[in-house]
Amino acid sequence: MKALAPRAALAFRVATFAWLVGWYWKAAFFGSYLFVETFAIPLRDEAFPAWIQAPALSAATYALPAIVTVSLFVPRVTIARAASVVMVGSALFASIHIDTAADATFTTSLWVGLWIAWLAWNGERTDEAFEVTAKALAQGVVGVLFLGALVGKMTPEYASGEAFYQLYFASRDEAPYPLLRASIAERDLREVATWFSRIAIAVEAVLAASPLAPFRFTLIAGCIALVAMVLVSTFYLVSVLASIAGLLVAAHLLGRTPSARASLSVLFAGPWRRR
Amino acid sequence: MRSLFDAFPLVRALRVARSRGDRGALSLFALLGLVALVILSEPLSPSLVAELMRVHHFTPSSMSRWIGLQIVPKPYAFSHHLWFASTPLNEADPSATEGLLEQYTLNHYPGRVTRFETVRAPIRDEVTELGAMHLLARSSYRGQTLSTAYAVRLVDGALVVSRESPLK
């Protein structure tokens, strides 16, 4: 069985690990919901066919990517390709199954999974075009993910800050919102929400347009924005954003010479020797 | 002109992928381009916005549209509000409904509330006592609005969600 080229193996491991972190970040929530509650108290929605709301299918879909962990330790071409098929298939089905469809975790997992699949199918390449294509595809994924959020906010409720005021400033129990409510008058808090909304829209516009910029810009702007989004929103957002961060870092690593340690780990990661 | 476009990494990558016959990369670029086009069409297409709102309400007009639009990223997109009551909601002024229990703004997918994640046991108890629970989701985008009324009942031990009002 052929091994991935060292750079591709490192990138594959980073992207796949981050993908798994995002997928299982809310394991406590999804564990009790998908594996206990949906079976204990069934819920039928008359607008959907039975297969798209079967609890066994959503539970199986959520559990399945755990087997992808094997590919982190044995980054061989065939295993990496099989793992990427599992990631894309699980994310696609989770995106349409009614139990999981509303969680953006599975949308980002799907798009990042497609990039990982491309990487796995080209993982023996070492040419310069490989790096150029991988980085441009990663930028394209980031651009489309933030374009959806940006265009969806081009509406008066977000332009005025009212949507974020209601979503965060008036109702969130996580820091810093209770402190802000206690220390700032409502009128001023609405003004803060308006600026918050404008900044959020501007950041999304920058990231949506970032495929037109050099990769380094997308990497730096993207990582700063992802961290900021978690800080101002909720720690649960890591489930949505971890795979995007992993994608950017993995694409960046394709342009670097792997360290001796990383190369060795690729060489001796499994029972098969590198070709 | 060619060298000017080559300054963009995206254009260079597309050229490289085409010259190498990298069908995987070209397919992924094409899919990204198609989805970007769909997203950019939102402000120009009331019918697309209407279908996206139906998706946010878990009330798609067909399964193929549901599947197709579920790959389109839409976090924190459009404005959404939801009312939750023990009696059918007054669609003209939901906040004035007599049996109003709760109302809140949501970031996306107000229809997800009908899944009652982690609260199915108390909802089942409420529905058992009241006979039915009622919800109204309202989404808006650039002046376009969609409202969907839902009812939740208990049938043979299962919670059953149905739509009570025609879509607007």
Task: Note the main attributes of this structure.
A: mainly alpha, 14 helices, 1% strand, disordered C terminus, B: 168 residues, alpha+beta, five-stranded antiparallel sheet, 6 helices
Quick one: which chains have the greatest interface? Answer: A-B, 68 and 65 residues
Q: In whole angstroms, how far apart are the ends of chain B?
A: 49 Å
Main sheet: strands, sense, barrel of chain A: none
Report low-confidence residues of chain B grouped into runs of 5 or more.
none
Residue share in helix of chain A: over 70%
Radius of gyration of chain A: 21 Å
Strand content of chain A: under 5%
Strand order of the largest sheet of chain B: 2-1-3-4-5
Structure description:
- Chain A is mostly helical and 275 residues long.
- Chain A is globular.
- Chain B is an alpha+beta fold and 168 residues long.
- Chain B is 39% helix and 24% strand.
- In chain B, strand 3 and strand 4 form a beta hairpin.
- The chains are: A mainly alpha (275), B alpha+beta (168).
- The interface between A and B is large, with 68 and 65 residues.
Write the layout of secondary structure elements.
The complex is a heterodimer of chains A (275) and B (168).
Chain A: H1 6-24, H2 27-40, E1 43-45, H3 55-63, H4 69-73, H5 77-96, H6 104-121, H7 128-152, H8 156-159, H9 162-169, H10 177-183, H11 186-209, H12 215-232, H13 238-253, H14 260-267
Chain B: H1 2-6, H2 9-20, H3 23-41, H4 46-56, H5 63-70, E1 79-85, E2 100-106, H6 120-130, E3 133-141, E4 144-155, E5 158-163
Antiparallel strand pairs in B: 1-2, 1-3, 3-4, 4-5
